[in-house]
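User:
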Amino acid sequence: MRTTSGDDTPGIDAPGASARPGLESLTRDLGLLYGGDYNPEQWTSDVWREDVALMREAGVNLVTVGVFAWAQLEPRPGEHDFTWLDEVLDLLHAGGIAVDLATPTASPPPWLGLRWPETRAVTPDGVRLSHGSRNHFCPSSPVYREHALAIAGALVERYAAHPAVRMWHIGNEYGQVCSCDLCGAAFQDWLRLRYGTVAELNRAWGTTFWGQRYDDWAEVVPPRAAPYLLNPTQVLDHRRFASDQLLSLFTEQRDLVRRAAPGVPVTTNFLGFHHPTDYWRWAPQVDVVADDAYPDPAAPESPVLAALSHDLMRSLAGGRPWMLMEQAAGAINWRTHNVPKSTARMRLDSLRAVARGADGSCFFQWRASAFGAERFHSALVPHAGPDTRLHRAVRAHGAELRRLAPVVGTSVPARTAVVFDWSSWWAAEERARPSDRLDVMAQLQAYYRPLWRAGIPVDVVHPAADLSGYDLVVAPQLHLVEDDAATNLRGVVERGGVLLIGPFSGVVDRDAHVRLGRSPVPFADLIGASGEEFCPLPAAGAPIVSDEIWDFVGTVWGERLRLDDGEAVATFTGADLEGCPAIVRRRHRSGGQAWYVATVPPQQVLDEVVRQCVLAAGVRPAVESLPDGLEAVRRGPVLFLLNPTPDERTIALPGVHHDLLTRTDVTDRVHLAPEGVVALIERTS
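Assistant: Predicted structure:
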């Protein structure tokens, strides 16, 4: 018998962030947070004084300090040098700049890995990583954890009462996965708590396949290099374990900080839809949801993915304000071809986050590095110094952020939800599947895109979340769904809402076992159709006809469905699927509707499907008749209109509105420059 149920996995502290100080502890007197990572250890003290003066001129009110400073703070084991950090924090405080002080545990100093090689991570191929970069630690190493807690404890002891320190930042961009024997032992412990007995593990993992039966916990190892395909449930559970193991690293340092500084919020930086870490499990453990976002300015779809990621962060925060911890001011350095942002794009990206619920917009980093691996990464003060177009834009943006006081602490109400689950994502991407061309993130963006285009506010939700507040729920590809989550989703239709489900959904259970019966097993009666075979399509796709939408060619994916008591919105006419429904709908006595899309339609067809679902659900956009390419988000009393296109756009908006950014009024029509933004409050008199 299992020792746990649902999403509960032992070893992680129960959520308790709601009673903790959050962003409001900073924004109540600082307003919207503005600044970025600051690495003073790379510069001499005369530069520190110039930096503080420039920060004040730019309106910077928060900087993150010390993220990668472990080797400077502890040059030899047990020997600390805090004199430089004392001076930096005093200077920042004298300048009125708050500090998000980091525990520097993401990048252990060389002496740690050289003296204790077991603190360095091991790849699935058995290669032990070296120092010389960052994030090379083993999350399970007792020696690493001991030294990480020691440096964190020394920092907390010295700076818990420092008036500059207004937030604590644990580690950095957690995502390391290790396959060493220490992690193997920790994996065994995690599995023992999850399953209770080896017999239950054997059942969950289906170890009768290929003779993988285990007789003792000691026989179980992490997924490592093997001759052929690995057990998919073993791989899935190891992903769950790896995320939880990193979370335990965060929580042990977090708890140390909380004991010493109970009135100060503690956070770490997320990474959007980050594959290795299940943020549904992480979010309740942070006092502030913070994100790093680096959309590619050269990619046409970047605004969509950026908006989706911001909606995820707001949703992880339970609808409360979150903060953008890192973004680029110009170019980054780690793509093969790094097109820089224009200064208008820098401003637009920052304001998009604010529009979608962020009460802080910060950057990596304050001053561009002259050396090291990120020396070509942009910064708020570029190599050429403050007398530059970029830094002038930085100062102007700091000034206009101060004008957005009316949005601080406000929410973005949504009646539409998009369903996303890390376990389902991981399970859907296991190697041995019908097609690797059906990509979870591509599907997620495709179903989100028409909602973004229409200016419809969207929350991102876990499938087991409370869905009672949503009229439309969209599950683009929920491959793995647990029984309680399936019941939860069915409830949307049963109470009169609209549920739209994408292909290859409801296929496996919690253990990644295929659900037996006609697919999608948990939803077949709900959608009024059922299937018997998954049919990836040939390169040319398959023709599909529709009297309700229009004829089109489905690509990548098909399913051999039959109609039960649903109706075919579109039907296959080829690819050995002649007469099989490609899009089905079932209208329910409750007034609700359930839709199922069993292919990958062209975007314009999917747009129409989503539009019909929106109409059926009675969902309203932030602005009616939004011109193509514009974004519209209403946050609190403020309507944000953003134009990520290279062309000027005009939108009709009856009445008189005041633009907080330019402090001017607009009447009946709003003109948006290329990459322009307005933040409007309606004039009532």
